[in-house]
Amino acid sequence: MRGLLKARQGAAAGSVYVAGAFAISGILTFVFHGYTGRSLGPARYGDFGVLWTSVFLVAQVLWIGVSQTLGRYVAEREARGEDPRPVITSVRRLTLALLGAFLGISLLASPLISFAVFEGDWLLTAAFIAAVAAYAPEYFLRGIFGGHRQFARLGVLHVAESSSRMLMAVVLLFAGVGIAGPAAAVVLAPLIGALAVWPGATQHSGKEGGPFSAVGAFRFAGPVLLCVTFGQILMNGGPILVRLLGGTSTQVALLVTALILARTPQYVLSPVIASLLPHASRALATEGRRGFNRFVLRALAAVGTVGVLMVGGTWLLGEWALRLVYGERFDVGTGLLVTLAALAAFYLLSEMFSQVLFALGRARLAAVGWFVGLPVSAAVIILLQTGVVERVSYSVALGALAAALVQAAFYVATRRSTPDAP
Fold first, then answer.
1. Which are the contacts of 260, defined by CB distance < 8 A and separation ≥ 6?
2. Which of 77, 221, 315, 373 could make an SS bond with 399 (beta carbons 3.0 to 4.6 A apart)?
3. For residue 297, what is the enclosing H or E element?
4. What letter does residue 268 receive in the DSSP assignment?
5. At a CB cut-off of 8 Å and minimum separation 6, what does 203 contact?
6. Are 148 and 72 in contact (CB under 8 A)?
7. Entry pTM
8. Coil, strand or helix: which one is 82?
9. Which residues in 272-305 are b (16+ Cβ under 10 Å) and which e?
């Protein structure tokens, strides 16, 4: 087992490890939410749902650039036979600077965060700040393991996090501590996962690496970070929007339960779609415009088929699965579940076209495509006259659809300029 964790895996094996780990992690996360919802009840689970979505929205936006910078430049230096330690040291300093800035700003803004987002609940406010900070070392390790192509170790990291979160929540809720149990689990799980697979000293047999500026290198991920930010607002911002629009904790809980159920396939498949970039880049470099366009059509057919299955499966089994996991107190209609399944399908489609535009060197167009989804979503919220949960659900689903269509249009407009095969 230790040899497998230290070994380096290729792209195909790496995708299998990461997808398998996310599948296991998704099941464990589903169990975590089901037990938490049954234990807390709809109203208090809604408060926890705001914490959950807030943590992952901010953590991904704040730390994804760290993991991407490490993943890219560690791999690049290893491929050249250079020592990657200057990269790791520089990015570590940048991570600590970002962490200090986040903690300082969050502590100063904590009264506003508490009353605007968590309805004055200081326990949840403290858990939010602590959890976002706790994800800094985990995302740092994600970048190192990805750069070293240690995908088995990356998979263990995800499973260790999700399993420890589930076990802590079950024990603490059974002990009767209430919402403090799952909140503590959200804070401690990324730290436990990081400690479980913390890398030891690595021997580097290569020429000494030159100096490295993480701040300068971090700029390469700017458009990618914008894509992540806009995408996370559409995918995870719904429960927070319901709260800001005056929705009750019970209404937030209904949206959280439906969203978690509907997006489970997306949670598993997003890492697989992220791995399309190297394959798309290789097709473009070796086969030119025609081969690249054939690759895009195959990817579109696969993602479209998955999307249809997600929506159809939710329409057939969604209500039954929701009652099975959360119990009878969480009553969500088929229409809302199908809407959120469509949101997850459109999100996967947008991710696919983002990878295509990245391969074409059009990352800024991908960011613009994601951004278009935000005003579309805002317009739907303003114009639609329905209940707050339905209004928010329709708005983010249509926003994700708009993002996918705009990025598809950008691909069609730019593919003619793609070079032919050499």
1. 29, 30, 33
2. 373
3. helix 276-326
4. H
5. none
6. no
7. 0.80
8. strand
9. bbbbbeebbbebbeebeeebbbebbeebbeebee
**What token pair was written down for 89?**
């040291």
Count of residues making up the chain: 422
Q: What is the pLDDT along the chain (422 residues), one digit of tens a residue?
A: 444 445 454 444 445 666 677 778 888 888 899 899 889 888 889 899 889 999 988 998 888 878 877 776 777 677 677 777 888 888 888 889 989 999 999 999 999 999 888 888 899 999 999 999 999 999 899 888 877 777 788 888 888 999 999 999 999 999 989 999 999 999 999 999 999 887 755 555 556 656 666 666 666 667 877 888 898 888 888 888 888 888 888 888 888 888 888 887 787 777 677 666 656 666 666 667 777 778 888 888 988 998 999 999 989 988 888 888 888 888 888 889 999 999 999 999 998 898 888 878 788 898 999 999 999 999 999 998 888 889 999 999 999 999 999 999 998 888 766 555 44
Domain ranges of the chain: 1-201, 220-416
- Short-list 279, 299, 276, 281, CA closest to 419: 281
